[in-house]
Write a structure and sequence with these properties.
The protein has one helix and 38 strands. By secondary structure, it is mainly beta. The protein folds into six domains: 136 residues, Immunoglobulin-like, CATH 2.60.40.10; 77 residues, Immunoglobulin-like, CATH 2.60.40; 63 residues, Carboxypeptidase-like, regulatory domain (Immunoglobulin-like); 65 residues, Sandwich (Immunoglobulin-like), CATH 2.60.40; 64 residues, Carboxypeptidase-like, regulatory domain (Immunoglobulin-like, Sandwich); 32 residues. The strands form ten sheets. A five-stranded antiparallel β-sheet has the order 2-1-3-4-7, with no helix packed on it. A five-stranded mixed β-sheet has the order 11-17-16-13-14, with no helix packed on it. Strands 6-5-8-9 form a four-stranded antiparallel β-sheet, with no helix packed on it. Strand 1 and strand 2 form a beta hairpin. The radius of gyration is 32 Å and the shape is flat.
Length: 498
């Protein structure tokens, strides 16, 4: 499809304008999940909603000439990150015709309209912290010639709002799964009491600050416009997690390990130890190893005062036994380096590790290196579960538009969605893109991605020719005719065959 014109609306300063030509101006959607446009949640600041949002109305849909109904219209509504860098992670679009609105992680969708008129569309973009930006756009669908007014096909409902949430209490950060028990509704507006909102039917919301929060839900039927709401006061209680774990030793200067991960040297105060059971190990050259299990409880400071005993050499006929390190990574496939030497690929168990402290580093393309010191005991196994953090500066995005739309998109063999779509989180470099659509020839191309930028790719798919039954009969007749002519020629050249 050639896009003869694109309407773009920016919420803040762009205003409404028409952009000529065939290039689609798109705003980067900074997310990743296979087939979806999903954003990493690391380092969420929760400082505010997306800074701005675009609204793109594809030409060749309901604005075609001459007009016709029903018509299918394509929309894209990408958004920019918040001032602090929180990326958009969820989107919503009310089509304005009484049908259920769209909600999901993708910044594009198509919709079929069955009648003409003016439709007010509400588009929204939100971060993982449930902070949203919203705006409206009025779309005019002209009536075809000799058009008869169509009565809307939607069935009016009488909404009754209700919800549940679990767990209703816990330590910060607390993630609560909310479930709507409403009836007769297809649009939802949640308010979580901490400034966060959501249009999802069953949202998950994370409370990051201790406190007591009231929650409300507004359930609406888009066909009739009827609204019903419900509020529950003091519904969620978020408490303060354990704040301090103090560790001292006599003599001082000993290395402190929590669950085989080094935390520093004594005297030491920790504020990031999770609630629950842990193993603490304190080691100092010339002294026996100090090991014990501890319980870290909510809002209860804990102090460990270890008195170390000098090591007494013991005669032994058995040398220390080597240990091992079991390593997993998210995502899997990270390269593993132990003491600077490349050892293998996670997940794996690495045997024959000398007892003592070892530097373990995991490296994966597109992610920050993960590095920690791990203590390995004689004949014992130490476990590492590393979650790598995506390096945003090393990725770019790819905007794919096809005519006709609906083509499945594979990047380097992985399914990434259906056109039109913006694919974020692609590593910088060259990628192989495959487009497939039933009754159309597969299209393959190599596209170079630049970090921090969006590469546009627009193409028109070629329809696969399928001969009709008449074409096949004509072809078969032509073959038979050629064979008969060949026999006649051979017969005339060789009279002996008579």
């Amino acid at each position: 499809m050639i896009f003869d014109h694109i309407f773009v609306r920016e919420q803040e300063e762009w205003g409404m304008k028409r952009i000529p030509g065939h290039d689609l101006i798109m705003v980067c959607c900074a997310v990743v999940m296979v087939g979806w446009c999903i954003v990493p949640v690391t380092a969420a600041l929760c400082d505010g909603p997306p800074q701005s949002q675009s609204f793109i109305l594809f030409s060749g849909g309901c604005d075609r000439s001459p007009p016709g109904l029903p018509c299918t219209q394509g929309f894209m509504f990408p958004a920019q990150p918040s001032v602090g860098g929180d990326f958009p992670a969820q989107y919503s679009l009310d089509f304005g015709d009484g049908s259920p609105p769209y909600y999901g992680p993708v910044d594009g969708v198509t919709h079929t309209y069955n009648s003409s008129g003016l439709f007010t569309l509400k588009f929204m973009a939100g971060t993982h912290c449930d902070l949203w930006r919203s705006d409206t756009f009025v779309m005019n669908i002209p009536a075809p010639a000799n058009y008869s007014l169509v009565i809307p096909a939607c069935v009016p409902g009488q909404p009754s709002a209700g919800f549940i949430g679990s767990p209703p209490s816990g330590v910060a950060p607390l993630t609560v799964q909310f479930t709507s028990t409403s009836s007769g509704a297809n649009t939802y507006a949640w308010s979580f009491g901490d400034g966060g909102t959501s249009p999802a039917q069953n949202p998950r919301h994370t409370y990051r600050t201790p406190g007591i929060y009231s929650v409300s839900l507004e359930a609406r039927d888009t066909c009739s416009g009827t609204v019903n709401s419900v509020s529950m006061n003091n519904f969620v209680t978020v408490t303060t997690p354990a704040t301090t774990l103090s560790v001292t030793s006599n003599p001082p200067g000993a290395a402190v390990f929590i669950d085989n991960v080094i935390k520093g040297r004594t005297p030491l105060t920790l504020t990031d130890t999770a609630i629950g059971n842990h193993q603490i190990t304190i080691m100092l050259d010339g002294y026996d190893e100090y090991t014990r299990n501890i319980m870290v409880e909510t809002a209860t400071p804990l102090t460990i005062a270890a008195v170390l005993s000098r090591s007494v050499p013991q005669p032994t006929t058995q040398p220390p036994q080597n240990g091992s390190i079991a390593i997993t990574s998210i995502p899997s496939g990270a390269e593993v380096y132990i003491d600077g030497q490349q050892t293998g690929i996670a997940p794996a168990i690495f045997p024959e590790i000398l007892p003592g402290n070892h530097q373990v580093t995991l490296s994966s393309k597109g992610y920050d290196d993960w590095s920690h010191i791990v203590s390995v005991g004689s004949g014992r196994m130490s476990a590492i579960n590393a979650e790598l953090v995506a390096t945003q500066e090393m990725t770019g995005s790819l905007a794919v538009i096809t005519e006709p739309p609906g083509a499945e998109i594979f990047v380097d063999g992985d399914f990434k969605g259906v056109s039109p779509v913006t694919i974020p989180g692609l590593s910088a470099g060259t990628h192989t893109v495959l487009l497939t659509l039933k009754e159309y020839a597969n299209t393959t191309t190599n596209i170079s991605i630049t970090a921090g930028k969006t590469q546009k790719y627009t193409t028109e798919l070629q329809k696969v020719y399928k001969p009709s039954a008449i074409d096949l009969l004509l072809a078969a007749g032509a073959i038979v005719m050629i064979a008969v002519i060949a026999l006649v020629v051979m017969f005339r050249k060789d009279p002996k065959t008579k």
